[in-house]
Amino acid sequence: MKKVRFFDGKSILVFGIIALAFYTLWQSRFNEALPEGYKAEKLEFRTLDGQNFTTDQIGMPVMLIFFNTKTFFTSNIYPNLILKAMPELKQIEKAGYVKIIVVTDTEQTPESVKKLLGRNKYKILENSIYLSNTELLSGYFGVRSWPHFFLMDRDNTILYQDKVPSVDKVIRILKGV
Q1: β-strand pairing of 62-67 with 99-104
Q2: CA–CA dist 162, 169 (Å, integer)
Q3: Cα 20 vs. chain centroid, distance in angstroms?
Q4: Can you tell me the distance from the alpha carbon of 104 to that of 46, in angstroms, rounded to the nearest whole number?
């Protein structure tokens, strides 16, 4: 009977490759997002009909959501959790407490976004998706792995940030704003 050795030359090489793969995956999924309490700069967006606006012009707290639609593994996990929370977040917006701004990883043209909204899964995002320079915006906010959620006050100070928002926590924070 041949004795199995876990720590021979080949095994150590395989363990090393697997460890490197997991580290690379973790590193690519890790966000170095701006911390709570950080005052973000004025942010610029464009509506689907071409109107430009900034967060300073909104005059109320903003929920900024970096929303991915293309990633294979996360397209069934985190984005679905955000889609599930959207009706409650939209109720908060409808009550006049915040403005929801969703930026997606699709091409930043009205046609591409309208095509995305044409898919039944993303109908809930209607009237919440805006165009922006997503590469610059995600780099500024330290978001390498989408989705990511930020709640900012009127002055663009980050009050809360997370991969997926807790609606209860958002409500508690807004009651104190």
Answers
A1: parallel
A2: 11
A3: 26
A4: 13
Upstream peptide bond of 35 is cis (omega within 30 degrees of 0):
no
Alpha-carbon separation of residue 87 from 34, 71, 100, 167 (angstroms): 26, 23, 12, 10
pLDDT, tens digit, for every residue of 56-108? Answer: 999 999 999 999 887 665 456 778 889 999 999 999 999 999 999 999 988 99
The residue assigned the tokens 């980050």 is 158
Nearest-angstrom CA–CA distance, 96 and 94: 5
What's the CA gap between 41 and 43, in Å, rounded? Answer: 6
Helical (H) or strand (E) element with 177: none
Among 65, 69, 79, smallest CA distance to 106 is for 69
Identify the CA nearest to 37 among candidates 151, 169, 148.
151
pTM for this entry: 0.81
Low-confidence ranges of the chain (pLDDT < 50): 74
**Residue 154 per-residue DSSP state:** T
78's tokens: 């985190």
Q: Which residue has the tokens 């150590």?
A: 12
